[in-house]
Amino acid sequence: MEDYTKFRLKSRDEIVPLLEGKDNLFVVACNKCFKEFENADEPERGEFEKIAAEQGKKITGCVNVDFLCNKTTTQNKLELPTGTENVAVISCGLGIQTVADLSDMPVYAAADSVKSYDGHHGMALTTVRCDGCGQCYLNLTGGICPIVDCSKSLVNGQCGGSKNFKCEVSKDKDCAWDKIHERLAAQGRAAEILNVPVQLRDHSKVNFKFIDDYVKSIREKRFEGYYGGIHPSEYKELAEFFPLKTFPAPDNVVIPLSQHAGAPAQAIVAAGDTVKTGQKIGEAGGFISSTIHSSVSGTVTAVEERLHPTTGVQVMSVVIKSDGKDELHESVKPVQNWESLSVDEIADIVREKGIVGMGGAGFPTAVKLKSPKPIDTVLLNGCECEPLLTCDHRVMLEFADDVIFGLKVLIKTTGAEKGMIVIEDNKHDAIELLEKKTADIPNIGIVVAKTKYPQGAEKMLIKRALGKSVPSGALPLDVGVVVSNVSTVKAVSDAIQKGMPLIERAVTVTGPYIKNPGNYMVKVGTPVQSLIDHCGGLTSDDVTIKLGGPMMGFEIENFDVPMIKGTNGIIAIEPDVSEASDCIKCGRCADVCPMELLPLYYPKLAMAQDWTGANDKSVRDCMECGCCEFICSSKIPLRYSIKQCKKGVIEQAQKEGK
Amino acid sequence: MLITVLKSKEDIECVAKGKTICVTCEGCKEVHFPEVEAIELVKELNPTGNVITEYVCNPDNLKVQLAKHMDKLNAADTVLVFSCGVGVQTVSDNFRDKKVYAACDTYPLPGGQGVTPLEFDCEQCGECYLNGTGGICPITACSKSLVNGQCGGCKDGKCEVDKEMDCGWERIYKRLEKLGLLDEMRYPAKLRNFNLMYEESK
């Protein structure tokens, strides 16, 4: 693997006078980048410490940092012990300047940056280079760059000094203009270059001002709301303008008893029983669990194990044959005077109506309502930051009043002072509508967030909307916040205003390979296949079907699985053909990780089964948003390793606990 | 690292002749790639295909990503690449007998190492000056890359070359003053050895 040396330790002759009169050193060393990734520290720090020790210097502490130039992640690691008077940095110039900027102590460079390659390369470690001249010549030269490949960077042809195709400046280098001529001649374009006047190089094109402005705008984007994040292509236009349609009730529904976080529900019906729409068929199996209701009226044909859509294992499910009448159960009736009910009574209704978080995780909403800590804000997640999905957008547009009603219920129940609906700026119509509708509600506000994935993640949402950071291992309620999805509060509203349990939800069926994308209100338990068929089927055989969005959705192979309470989308997308190659330590994963972690370590740690190391690298803070995997220039399936690490960390903790 | 800017529409239309297929690289999109403009332009050009891929600068990855589209690519007269210069060269190397054109101009991005767009720049001068300057680089923070102090053209702390830029040497002075290290400035200036910059690369 190519290895670009970025810096080397200054020589002993330089370090000794540098250390003169300076004591109590703290040593910071960068682990380097764009190199073969090894899980071991670079040797320079040891060498420096040896020289310092020989000079009788006291070292107060030392630290090795990955991507020292990344200020956000670096500042968390620079805790200078008391007694430190000087900081010595072994890094390229970028790292040294970053530390100097962060530290109140004098910072000294113990290394020199080395220009190991001319120009700037792309992401991959290749020999192909680009000098960033700002006026690409490749169109004239058959794709061979005269700026970097010609020693003299000539733009008007051969200098005349080339002999036997070799450059006169460096004899082992091919003459670039010979190569250009050869390539153009092979394509029958040799005359082309003769007829085109020489394009003079305008060196003023690449100027400080231009680049400075650019960098500023990029940095602003990167720190917008919270650190990192990505902007995948949205493709929301495929489905966003299709209003929600009621999906015809299927003949058979398969309702898994585990559609939520926590213990599965216990079936309270048996094969042969007659059930009605909205009738309870599963009782909550614990505090963190949820009830399950029938989404159709008809006859229970089986209570048996069926394939679960997202976990991929067999779980107990209730299979119901619909009689097509959709008769409502008598328990489905509006709650009278909800405002006079106590917190516990409302929480019981929410619990009894089987309402769980509908953003995907399926955490029982009732548990959130009975927070043991004081809550000051209820945040509604209307970001829908996943590409392609548009069902929450449609819910906000078509059920705005229900969403606001549900939010009011949550504010009252949690005792919060205010509620906020956070919407990404790509949903102008929803923002406009909800702003109008909430204008005269003093304690409900709309926050418009810039479109950026994963905006809808709890911790990002809180940071963006309230500027609060949820500490590692803590929950939103620890900072006095309850976060809920817009679809979830719509369900809360239905439960109170209509008495309807959570038996149907908005689903987006979309993707470049779905013939007729659309948004539907779908009964829980409807097979995925029938939804795909209803939308005209797939337009290609070679597609990946996911439940959820392209970033965090679950890939399914068996389309007979039912959709559940947490299924917000069925998408047909291009299969991923990439192959993983070795990590080149480009640092892009650390650059986009919204939790400010170093994802590149997890594959190494998982391979070595080093669960202590994984825990030290805060793997449990990872929410598996997939930004690192999306951005990885080596296409490493990072989430797979992260899951392994998490499992390992938990198992190890359990073992040690016993 | 690099930043890319679309070439003018006229320039691109000049080269996108015959059966054209576009290859769009979105690998560095988060750093900078004119995504929206590129999509618009591709629509207007109406090519025979638009292959959206990422990190085309990685030759192995490029082959994998293009494998599925080889029929279309082989049938095309012209391949128009929306990427930085490295990407265009890598694609061009893959299709040596085809016209491969660049749709973007490429600019350098400060911070040759790491990919974070930084507020700092390092020119890899090979003889780090940061020790005498309180950690502010005179090579990159001063428009003139002076190593022996202020030029005298600075007004109200702003550089005379770019009025919006802070004078690097004024920042250095202030930083050293804050650190109580003003004596550092009394040392004789270290002359810059331009040889060092290139020595190592050979």
Structure overview:
The complex is a heterodimer of chains A (658) and B (202). Chain A is of the alpha/beta class. Among the domains of chain A are: 7-113, Rossmann fold (3-Layer(aba) Sandwich), CATH 3.40.50.2300; 146-203, no CATH class; 338-497, NADH-ubiquinone oxidoreductase 51kDa subunit (Rossmann fold, 3-Layer(aba) Sandwich); 588-657, no CATH class. In chain A, 29% of the residues lie in helices and 17% in strands. Chain A contains 21 helices and 23 strands. In chain A, a hairpin with a 7-residue loop joins strand 19 and strand 20 (518-523). In chain A, helix 12 packs across helix 15 (486-497). Chain A is globular. Chain B is α/β, with parallel strands linked by helices and 202 residues long. Chain B folds into two domains: 2-108, Rossmann fold (3-Layer(aba) Sandwich), CATH 3.40.50; 130-199, no CATH class. Chain B contains nine helices and six strands, in the order E-H-E-H-H-E-H-H-E-H-E-E-H-H-H. Chain B has helices at residues 9-15, 29-32, 35-45, 59-66, 70-75, 85-94, 138-141, 168-179, 195-199; strands at 2-6, 20-25, 49-53, 78-82, 99-102, 104-108. In chain B, the strands form two sheets. A four-stranded parallel β-sheet of chain B has the order 3-2-4-5, with helices on one face. The longest helix of chain B is centred in the last third of the chain and has 12 residues, at 168-179. Chain B is elongated and about 70 Å long. In chain B, 47% of the residues are buried. Classes of the chains: A alpha/beta (658), B alpha/beta (202). At the A-B interface, helix 4, strand 5, strand 6, helix 8 and helix 17 of A face strand 1, helix 2, helix 4, helix 6 and strand 5 of B.
Keywords:
A: 658 residues, alpha/beta, Rossmann fold, 6-stranded mixed beta sheet, 4-stranded parallel beta sheet, 23 strands, 17% strand, B: alpha/beta, 2 domains, two-stranded antiparallel sheet, 6 strands, 33% helix, elongated
